[in-house]
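User: what does the whole thing look like in 3D?
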Amino acid sequence: MELDRYAVVGNPIAHSRSPEIHAQFAQQTKQLLRYERLLAPFDGFAETIAEFSRQGGKGLNVTVPFKLEAYTLATSLTARAETAGAVNTLFWRDDQLWGDNTDGAGLVTDLNHNAGVTIADRRILLLGAGGAARGVMLPLLQMRPAQLTVANRTSSKAIDLAQLFSSHGKVAASEYEQLQGRFDIVINATSASLGHDLPPVPETVFSEGTFAYDMMYGGKQTVFMEFAAKHGAAIRDGLGMLIEQAAESFFLWRGIRPDTGPVHAALRRQLIQSAEQA
Ligand code: NDP
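Assistant: Here's the predicted 3D structure for the full assembly of 278 residues, as structure tokens:
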């Protein structure tokens, strides 16, 4: 029997954990499907998607650097993809190529449901103004925080982001060095951790009672997590966000919600093992 085909597309793609995550979801929910890695040439994203469709592909996750191209390519967009301006999930339905963005839902579920962190009425600081930051703005604002402050190295991008979402809640932009007072939740949506860097965030934003979240994940704490912990914050990395956004995509494709807990535990073990062997 021909299995339904799904894939994660990006460039590079060899590092992606999505095939392991979706294989575990499929096994757990008894869904018969195949999920693979798809390397698209930098100038050949649309052709790669068209070929995957010709071969009977049903849906895709989209990762760096194609989330904006996927947004343009989709013929129908969900409201959250439209506001995010980026697409991380594609699927064909009713002769349309649908684009959705599940990153923000993934973050909010991980924070709220898995980590037990309340977002409503809290002061939130979001570091970064790239694709990931943009994708989480609306889902965070829908949880009604007291204030959402965006800080970015290129401050004009933080100002643009704050303006874009100003009708959805209390949003402000700030320079890093002008950040005032402590925050309840600090989310690192910069890619600084990829290069073992720390965004220039003042230590005064953290205190005991602050929850610091790095979207980056791995077998070890990031420099951001170490810095936040040193200044009293509770910390968490972005593995849960990765798994929850995948679960949301799986639900869109298959209509069934996997149990993410065991997948999280298994992947954490693998990441720690890989870090110890490195
Ligand atoms: P982008 O390239 O779109 O944006 C990068 C952002 O990081 C920009 O705001 C940039 O600032 C800022 N930045 C980069 N380096 C530094 C630095 N050294 N100091 C301060 N700011 C810096 O990346 P994405 O938004 O797509 O991804 C951001 C991070 O989120 C990545 O680490 C990615 O792995 C992670 N991510 C995790 C997900 C998950 O499921 N866990 C999902 C999606 C993303 P400037 O504008 O000034 O260049």
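In plain terms: The two ends are 40 Å apart (CA to CA). Residues 103, 106, 128-133, 152-154, 157, 189-194, 197, 199, 215-217, 238, 241-242, 245 surround NDP (CB under 6 Å).
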